[in-house]
């Protein structure tokens, strides 16, 4: 790193020290000021900064910073979701009250365009969003502006987040019929994952490399062959805010596209497809060889449609077991 890059990293570390001294990460004047400074410091694209090659002290600060950013983001979404649900008319008509709403509009359009390019015209019938939170803006933006006939299933481990999110969409006659919420750890969801054409994984599900890879491995094990996995990642100094997902983390998936925004959209987008099943067969020499089984898309989509009708009953039973 040159001197200018070192100064940037030092400024980020100094901001972490100030943030770590806050009594609470809930929205307040001090919290808002510090996090705005942090985001504005990290957002200018700088490909020269590779956080994975920095010293152990900076790496430790980065991990702590990602954690506090996740906690602060959760408080912020909970705060604004509570405000929005207090409106007597449709709360979705007031989403622009959320300070980062227009970033989600840009990110939703970006992810829809990438999805369209890589699905070759196929429109997903069912989408799962893992880690949707109390303000599921990605699902709402996609459902209202881009995928107007698609069913969305939002997964979050926090029942209070899902309660707010469900209330948020309940007054909308269209979205409320196409959006469902499930309070469950995604690691406990298995067979149901085969029912989705696309699975979105939120940036802060798995805040460190080990946890992120563990979730990806679970999704790879249970998603349908040929289904798409979309993930949020980070690049350059933005990786002080969110975890990085690298192609080597996506074992069992074919990486189709990686996009690093250079505007005020913070997250990079990684789109991948689960590879066809691999089976071992004996060969003439007595050893084993691996064959890739072709993906029969028509059968997969037929199975998805059949299972979609059973999903709500299965999810309800699963939630009762976990409660």
From TrEMBL:
Q: Name one Pfam family in it.
A: NAS
**Reaction(s) catalyzed by this protein?**
3 S-adenosyl-L-methionine = nicotianamine + 3 S-methyl-5'-thioadenosine + 3 H(+)
Tell me a GO biological process for this protein. Answer: nicotianamine biosynthetic process
Keyword Transferase set for record: yes
SUPFAM superfamilies reported for this sequence: S-adenosyl-L-methionine-dependent methyltransferases
Which EC numbers does the record give? 2.5.1.43
* Enzyme superclass (EC): transferase
Sorted UniProt keywords: S-adenosyl-L-methionine, Transferase
Molecular function per GO: nicotianamine synthase activity
Q: Please report which protein family the annotation says this sequence is part of.
A: Belongs to the nicotianamine synthase (NAS)-like family.
What does the function comment of this entry state?
A: Synthesizes nicotianamine, a polyamine which serves as a sensor for the physiological iron status within the plant, and/or might be involved in the transport of iron.
Q: What is the protein name stated in its UniProt record?
A: Nicotianamine synthase
